[in-house]
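Notes from the 1:1 (GR / supervisor)

We went over the backlog. Supervisor wanted to see one worked example end to end before approving the batch request, so GR pasted a single chain during the call. The sequence is below; no edits were made to it. Supervisor asked that the structure be written out right there so they could see what the output format looks like.
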Amino acid sequence: MALEYTTDQIANLLERVSNWGRWGKDDQRGALNLIDDHKRAAAARLVQSGQSVSLSVPLATRPSRDNPRPVTHLMIRSGVVGHPLGSSGAADYFAIEPHGLATTHLDALCHHSWRGRLYNGFDMNEVDFQGAHKCAIDAAREGIVSRGVLLDIPRIRGVEWIEPGDAIYPEDLEAAERDHQVRAGEGDVLLVRTGRFKLRRAKGAGAFTFGAMPGLHASCLPWLHQRDIAVLGSDAISDVLPSGYDAPLAMPIHTGTLVMMGVHLIDNAELERLAEQCARVGRYQFMFSLLPLVLERGTGSPANPVALF
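Structure output shown during the call:
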């Protein structure tokens, strides 16, 4: 069992994993700086069969216990006559809150703050009613293309899924690396499967709330920092909940990655098909691609990440 930190120890740990100033005092890209042209080219060389696997859940337009604010989808033209140009055609309107437990999305670095500061020490007041003036989602406008690594925790524990509230520790991550014959490293996109969506299909949306989610224990922060990953993703929200810590440290993985390390987070990724593909081909590394919306001042973006083999 990994170390159980006190609240003060968590606060000190956050300072030890900081990347503030590493890429300059004005940097807003954080660990995305670790993905250079050579890293992208190396990722492209991992493509052998050309098979692609989407890692996104469908956008949910109906409310559920884990989706109280679903996507608004309105048809504004349904293919009938009346088009201003005299032709027929269909058109619709979407409104999406990307954060939460339902939508596959990328968190911008401005999504969390710690002690009044965003990533790289920017004042949290840089986020106001107009949006984020620092560390917004458009910092990733060039897209995220790198080597992806999947660590399948239910596989190495011999279970179908990790139960809500159960923590994943550094020893679990390393056991998965040994089993999968892969090692997460500099500039990688690390994806951690908990089996959440397999559990949801078996037990329904009520199996998950913001009070009970499988995820990484705070003791994983030094491990993530040492591995120098560029992006962290999960089929849950990366943090185990309850974490055992009160606000503002209730989500130490979110705070440690987004604020201190400058590591963007992917929440609610659908990793079941990816895990099946990795097991089938015996390879847990692949080319990873994610293109967020270019929303200036946005705190996040819905996303459709893709793994290519």
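Supervisor's comment: The longest helix spans residues 170-180.
Batch request approved.
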